[in-house]
Design brief:
heterodimer; A: 239 residues; alpha/beta; Rossmann fold; 13 strands; B: 475 residues; 6-stranded parallel β-sheet; 4-stranded mixed β-sheet; 22 helices
């Protein structure tokens, strides 16, 4: 049972708002059906293959490398990329999909290369952070993928730490092809429906589109600020 | 710093802005890039007007029912184990935040970008309580390292500084020894701030959109610093202006799409982070404790007035990026952390006419702001409304308008007077004109030309030319 938090000062604050709005407090409001809903028109009717093309094109704009492969080749491609990037430390989620996609032996395959692979430890908080903070690559699966904006969506959970996609220098996302949807609309609606059913929203939902960047110095785009300096996506055909 | 920046009077601030050649160059090129980014993003969608109408409808419904949605939000935050504090004033907000930090024995606070924490002067309150407060947004950090230089833009706060100036600031204050290349400057910031993130006890964020239905707060960022602030420290405090809320995830999605396109022309920023409560049992990273501070600080006075729609603002800065006045005078001239058209409407409402009565006049009423606004706030109409109220309250306009407008209204009161007036003008003003521009005008024009050039009246007026052409054509 989760502890319930406190709300301080609420009634006087909200009473004042209602007063200024010239009415009594409202305790029930029906959200209207919005007159215009253009968000559903974007990439309407696109096939999964169309969406892959849109995603690949968008990745060019957001400075993100993208590869395509099939399940049986995934492990080979990842070990190849790890070597190519010259990485020595890799951190991954503790996520059953690693086993489903034949990635549980990454550790052994890379042991000859002096690469250390750390799987997110559900017990060791500080150790995970310390490892991730200096890791060369962080690897996660994508829980949902947005074609329009080149975005991978990550739902936090026990084995799915927030730091894996944040602290390492390179972020590598594995995108099962079936997770690709047109845009943010589809994911937001799915989460909204879950909330209506009374399901718990993950404590952290991250929509990640490429590497971190900034335009704070003379409006020049700098790729790589506090988050990863490089992002790579792998689309894997899971059908 | 509070909402007010600097102590100089309006005219001096404007002169400083006009004289700052680098700032003006930086602002105009930034405006160009922002603007084309927004227009491309709009064009790509095809039906941008429908998106704007949807944005307007969502914002209008939400603010009209703000008490309901804030209640729902707070219920859902507390259900997930977070705490909510409703602060009517800046002092109440700062007291609560300072107390939380003290209870946690917090010494080092890392912050991601938040305008409302600037508005309530939170950093100073925390520093007084003995905390170190570190800004982690690159632009905000640069300003902080440079002895708290005020922000000049709500999206890129250090817009008025060039890379050489930034290099010098880093060198003088932090012993930086590399070049002015933006990549090297950013790498330096990454290394310096990485240590701070890993040591901080408290993380403080702003909030782009709180989602009422699930008690979630969302952050729209590019650098990854807001994720650091909400991943590593044990305690997270989020401060939001009370209007920064949407009913459900569906509306959050629409407004985020409008925000990122209108602000920088991106389809989405690198990170949209939606956080619900503290970390759940069994999760390894994320905060153990979560506090949400909802700030009024003068906003509720705007509800129920003709200015209510300024609370629809989603802080994209599109109006700032198209404003011809901002382009010339820069952000510091507004004397408020909220510059440009939105600032000229909002600052007098939050800070009072006494302090900000000139701002509604720092506008040409060209309506470019209204046209650019992704949620269709009639900004230029609000500016006019301010002018009306100022005139009604004070019996006169605050700056030069009364005098110059009186002369103008005399000259334009009747066609006969206008004819005489505009016929006389070239002769009267000719002496002040240089290259057909009047830069140092007399009498009523003086105040105007201190800020910009006034086109010299043509010797041939349009009416005369028209008559002449008609005659020539034998009409």
């Amino acid at each position: 049972m989760m502890a319930v938090g406190q709300a301080h000062n609420r009634n006087s604050f909200l009473d004042n708002l209602a007063k200024n709005l010239g009415r009594e407090r409202r305790h029930h409001v029906e959200k209207p059906n919005w007159t215009h809903q253009p968000q559903w028109e974007v990439l309407k009717g696109a096939s999964q293959d169309d969406l892959v093309e849109v995603l690949k094109k968008q990745c060019k704009l957001i400075h993100t490398d993208i590869h395509e492969t099939v399940s049986s080749e995934l492990s080979t491609l990842i070990t190849h990329l790890i070597k190519e990037y010259g990485a020595k430390t890799v951190v991954t989620w503790d996520d059953p999909r690693f086993e489903e996609f034949g990635l549980n032996d990454l550790d052994e395959e890379l042991s000859n290369e002096q690469v250390t692979v750390h799987t997110w430890d559900r017990e060791g908080a500080e150790e995970n952070l310390a490892f991730s903070a200096t890791a060369d690559i962080g690897i996660t699966f994508s829980d949902a993928t947005l074609a329009e904006s080149g975005t991978v969506v990550l739902y936090s959970d026990k084995g799915k730490g927030r730091a894996v996609s944040l602290l390492p220098a390179v972020y590598l996302a594995i995108i099962p092809k079936s997770t690709i949807v047109p845009r943010m609309t589809q994911v937001a609606t799915e989460i909204h429906r879950k909330v209506e059913k009374g399901d718990m929203v993950p404590s952290c939902v991250n929509f990640i589109s490429g590497p971190s960047n900034s335009a704070d110095i003379e409006m020049n785009l700098i790729v790589g600020v506090h988050g990863p300096v490089k992002a790579t996506y792998i689309i894997v055909d899971d059908k | 710093m509070a909402m007010k920046i600097g102590d100089k009077p309006f005219k001096e601030r404007v002169s400083d802005g006009i004289d700052d050649k680098f700032m003006r160059g930086a602002v105009s090129s930034a405006q160009g890039r922002f603007r084309s980014g927004r227009l491309n993003a709009a064009e790509e969608l095809g039906n941008w007007e429908d998106w704007r109408k949807l944005g307007e409808e969502i914002r209008s419904h939400t603010i009209e029912n703000l008490d309901y949605y804030l209640e729902l939000l707070s219920e859902n935050v507390t259900k997930r184990g977070g705490h909510v504090f409703f602060a009517e004033t800046a002092e109440e907000a700062n007291d609560y935040i300072t107390n939380v930090v003290k209870q946690k024995n917090g010494k080092k606070v890392v912050k991601s970008k938040s305008m409302v924490t600037e508005e309530i002067n939170m950093n100073e309150a925390l520093e007084k309580a003995g905390c170190e407060v570190i800004e982690s947004d690159l632009g905000e950090w640069i300003l902080q390292v440079d002895d708290h230089d005020p922000p000049s833009h709500i999206v890129t706060p250090a817009l008025h500084k060039n890379k050489e100036q930034i290099r010098d600031v880093f060198r003088d204050k932090l012993g930086y020894d590399k070049t002015e290349k933006p990549e090297e400057l950013a790498l330096f910031a990454r290394e310096k701030l990485r240590e701070e993130f890993l040591q901080a006890d408290i993380g403080i964020t702003g909030c782009n959109f709180a989602i009422a239905e699930s008690g979630t707060i969302s952050l729209v960022t590019n650098e990854g610093n807001a994720r650091m602030v909400t991943t590593i420290p044990k305690t997270q405090i989020t401060v939001m202006g009370m209007e920064r809320i949407v009913p459900t995830w569906e509306e959050m999605e629409v407004l985020v799409s409008l925000l990122t396109r209108a602000a920088v022309g991106q389809k989405l920023t690198s990170y949209i982070t939606a956080l619900t409560g503290p970390k759940q049992e069994g999760e390894v990273d994320g905060p153990e404790e979560f506090h949400l501070v909802v700030v009024d600080n003068g906003r509720s006075k705007i509800l129920g007035t003709a200015f209510q729609s300024i609370l629809h603002c989603i802080r994209c800065a599109a109006c700032i990026n198209v404003c011809p006045v901002y382009r010339h005078v820069g952000g510091h001239s507004y004397g408020s952390i909220y510059p440009g058209p939105v600032g000229a409407v909002l600052s007098p409402l939050l800070g009072g006419y006494e302090e900000y009565k000139e701002l509604p006049y720092a506008s040409t009423l060209c309506a470019a702001c209204t046209e650019a606004c992704p949620v269709k706030i009639p900004l230029h109409e609000h500016l006019l409304r301010h002018r009306q109220e100022i005139v009604e309250k004070e019996g006169k306009a605050p700056v030069f308008e009364n005098l110059s407008m009186k002369a103008f209204s005399m000259g334009t009161a009747s066609p006969a007077m206008y004819n005489i007036g505009s016929k006389l003008a070239p002769t009267a003003l000719g002496a002040f004109a240089k290259d057909d521009k009047i830069s140092d005008g007399p009498g009523p024009l003086k105040n105007w030309t201190e800020i910009r050039d006034f086109p010299a009246p043509k010797k041939d007026r349009f009416r005369d030319l028209y008559k002449k052409r008609k005659k020539e054509r034998g009409e």
